[in-house]
Every structure is written in structure tokens, then in C-alpha cells.
Design goal:
Rieske Iron-sulfur Protein; three-stranded mixed sheet; binds FE2/S2 (inorganic) cluster; 12 strands; GMP Synthetase, Chain A, domain 3; three-stranded antiparallel sheet; about 25% strand; flat; alpha+beta
């Protein structure tokens, strides 16, 4: 007569936390850096191959989930998971906002600046320009211009596509005043056919948005938002790329150049509509011209 043996039950292993995973990566990177050159080359080759494999797999998963209405919501939830978010950032599937990206780029040259007894900080990004505050021996020394142009500027502009130039932060921080907005009329194109008057530029202070319901002479209509970032206007359909909800109450961060949907907090680059929280999603831009 046989008796059935009971298997001891084992509690499932807990998933490592993000801190534990990050520490394991840091420890491995430190160990690899200490290897002899030949071994280090082999280890780095293995890491690059695994990175390429993981990026290809993540990209395929994101595309598949994003393109199907029934799974897109799951993708949004996944992106909120800290580990998934970090993995997507590491593999370039999520784009940091321009200010964060500029600060990351600056870290590459900070040791060189510190070696000269100076310091540099990106304080804001306005209208595709990164504004830098210099400290230590950089501040006011004859090397300031050279430091900016040849080191900091190159490091940031080459690394951040959303930034065209770097300047010293000598101006006061931007305010929501409309004093610097030239008076003029703006028009938004609602269809192939024509342009529709969308009001006066002065009605849209910097760092704010307005909603306009427009109808052209052919009866084509569109509801748009017009956003003022650093004195430049940008127009989008008033439809979030997530669930199609309106963006009337969206939060505008002029310093970072972002627009955040009030419903589920998707964050967009307010200057081109690209979603920074979800790869491939974007607001639908509407052509806009100033001056009637
Ligand atoms: S509707 Fe969900 S984030 Fe905008």
C-alpha cells in the first residue's frame, strides 16, 4: 500500500525591489570596471548584446500593447510601475523632459568644471534654450564664455534634441505676465481649406493655455488648445492621446515646457506634443500662424 507523500510548501520568492535591482546593477558595473582590459571588453560586449535584446523585446511589447485599444490601458498602468518605468528610460523608450535631460547631460562635464574650481547648474529651459547658472571660479572669470560655449553648451546641445542653445541665466525668472507678448491676431487651420481667427495673442499669457472652439467657412470645426511656452504659441486638438478627454484644465509647466493631462497625468512636451510618459503617443498638432 502506497501513501502519498506531501510536498513541503514553499512560499514564492519575493520579487526584488527597485532599490535592490539598481544596487545589483551598480555592483556589477563596479566589478566590471575593475576587471583587466581584456575581460572588461568581453563583459561589456555581453552587456551591450543583452541591452540590445532587452530593448528589442521591450519595444515590441510596447508597440503591441499601444496599437490595440483593449490593451493600451494596461500599458499605461505598466509605465507607472517604477521598475518598468526605469527599464523604459534606460532603453530610451521614455524621454526625460528637457530640463531633466539637460541636467543629466551636464553631469558628464561637471568633473571638468569642478577641476577648475567652478560649478554649473541648469536652472530652467525656455523656448529651446537652457539657462545656466555658474558658480565658484567660473562666475565672472574670464573663462566664463569659453566654459559655456565649448564645454557646457556642447554637452547639452549635443545630448538634448529639444535644446538648441545654452545661455547664462542673467534674466529674472519668467513670469506669467503678458507684457512681452506682441499684440497680434492668431489663426488656427481647422482643415485643408483655411485658417480661422483664434483671437489675440495677448489673450494667452506665458505659461498658460486657452481653449478655442473654431469653425471655418466650410463648416469644419475643431476644438483646440493654444499653449504659450516662453512666448511661442503651440496649438493642439483638445484631445488627450490617452482616453480622448479634454485638456482644458491641463497643468502647464513653462520652466520645463510640459503639459500634464488633468485626468491621468500623462505628461507631454508642450512644444511638440510628444508624450513623455508613453512612447509613441502624442497630441495632434494644429498649424498655427500669427499676424492675421
Ligand atoms: S485622458 Fe488619461 S491621461 Fe489624459
Amino acid at each position: 500500500m502506497t501513501t502519498q507523500q506531501e510536498r513541503p510548501t514553499q512560499a514564492p520568492a519575493a520579487s526584488p525591489t527597485m532599490e535592490e535591482l539598481a544596487k545589483a546593477v551598480d555592483d556589477a558595473a563596479t566589478a566590471v570596471a575593475a576587471l583587466p582590459a581584456e575581460s572588461r571588453t568581453v563583459a561589456e560586449g555581453l552587456r551591450e548584446a543583452l541591452d540590445a535584446l532587452n530593448k528589442a523585446a521591450l519595444t515590441a511589447i510596447v508597440r503591441r500593447l499601444r496599437d490595440d485599444n483593449s490593451t493600451r490601458e494596461a500599458l499605461f498602468e505598466l509605465v507607472d510601475d517604477p521598475v518598468v518605468h526605469l527599464a523604459m528610460m534606460v532603453h530610451g523608450l521614455l524621454r526625460p523632459d528637457p530640463l531633466t535631460a539637460a541636467r543629466q547631460a551636464l553631469t558628464a562635464v561637471e568633473p571638468m568644471i569642478a577641476a577648475h574650481g567652478g560649478s554649473a547648474e541648469v536652472v530652467r529651459v525656455d523656448d529651446r534654450i537652457a539657462y545656466i547658472r555658474l558658480g565658484g571660479s567660473c562666475n565672472g572669470c574670464s573663462m566664463t564664455d569659453q566654459t559655456l560655449r565649448t564645454t557646457v553648451s556642447e554637452a547639452i546641445v549635443s545630448a538634448v534634441p529639444a535644446i538648441d542653445a545654452v545661455e547664462l541665466d542673467t534674466a529674472p525668472a519668467p513670469t506669467s505676465s503678458a507684457a512681452f507678448i506682441p499684440l497680434g491676431e492668431i489663426s488656427v487651420r481647422t482643415a485643408e481649406s483655411g485658417w480661422v481667427d483664434a483671437g489675440a495673442v495677448a489673450e494667452i499669457p506665458r505659461g498658460e493655455l486657452v481653449v478655442r472652439s473654431l469653425t471655418d467657412e466650410h463648416g469644419e470645426s475643431a476644438e483646440v488648445i493654444i499653449v504659450n511656452i516662453g512666448g511661442t504659441l503651440h496649438s493642439y486638438l483638445n484631445v488627450c492621446a490617452h482616453q480622448g478627454l479634454p485638456l482644458d484644465e491641463a497643468l502647464i509647466d513653462e520652466t520645463e515646457g510640459t503639459l500634464t493631462c488633468p485626468w491621468h497625468a500623462l505628461c507631454y512636451d508642450a512644444t511638440d506634443g510628444e508624450c513623455m510618459s508613453l512612447p509613441g503617443a502624442a497630441l495632434e498638432q494644429r498649424p498655427l500662424r500669427q499676424g492675421g
